[in-house]
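Take a specimen:
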Amino acid sequence: MADTGASSQDPDVGDVNVGVGDVLAAQARLRRYLPETPLHHAERFGVMLKLENLQRTGSYKVRGALNSLLVARERGDERPVICASAGNHAQGVAWAAYRLGVQAITVMPIGAPQNKIAGVAHWGATVRQHGNSYDEAFMFARELAEQNGYRFLSAFDDPDVIAGQGTVGIEIAAHTPDVVIVPIGGGGLASGVALALKSQGVRVVGAQVEGVDSMVRALAGDVRAIAPAASLADGVRVKVPGFITRRLCANLLDDIVIVREAELRETLVRLALEENIIAEGAGALALAAGRRVSGKRKCAVVSGGNIDAQVLAQLLSDVRPRPPRKPRRRKTEPARLQPPAASATPSPVVRIQPLNSTAAPRTRRAAVAVEEETTW
């Protein structure tokens, strides 16, 4: 995608640089704390799935949060950290802060899934609920950071967060895909994965939901805040994407696919019923976009699995996915039987010894064994 350049409304982020070296450094830091998530071949979809729903806290977000806190510790920054999040970034920050002994405050919008709020509280972080959207929670968190001297940690528009998310791409690279599909909210995951993979010739395609497409609009030159439509993919509902991530996506992404809400719901149910994989709405977004992306070795990132139990139960009750297409069989010509070549030497004659004859004991035992097997 072509670089759209900076808008007059953008903050000055010209001196902020993040590259492949930062992603590799993040991988070295995180290896001690986080396991490598598996790659699953979803045969019915014809796609490999990077299962970040099996990551600590059930989402890739913990990668960026932990890397940012580790970098801050290396710099000697011991301030309490505060963040705004619809749920997954808050859980990642809470877990990382717990592991490193850092005080953490999370601001979550009113109406955030209860399972995500409980996950944040479980790791000892302070939970504040404010506003009806991520962006309202974001503004409130920034105000608290300025008033109290906290360190504000963006969910996506931060170089260390982007580098941490890019470790997903490093792990995928070992499986040599030709195209990787990632969901886009603020753009942190897409930016990091693209940084990790573009130098290896891998196509990286983003996925957004219809009506929740702030990144597509921003790359087209429309940088106004949008009112995101109601969507199952609550994790990607942002009014304005990141400024750093916008520039990276403009330079590195090959395309962005827009998915309808009905497609997203059906994909999530099919994942649960056909692949036994539980994903949240944003987690199923890349796979839903995969049907419109060409490639022989496609990989879709299942970014998270923190779906509310009641929402999942309602989806399984309401959505009846279409049956998948039957696999096509490869047509191969049957081997032609060749007549035996004429030979001057006559074939040997095999004589079968009757069972009641007086044959040697070894031959008789073999004949009895054949008779028993055929009547079994």
User: Anything to note?
Assistant: The first strand starts at residue 39 and ends at 42. Confidence is low (pLDDT under 50) at residues 2-14, 347-352, 354-376.
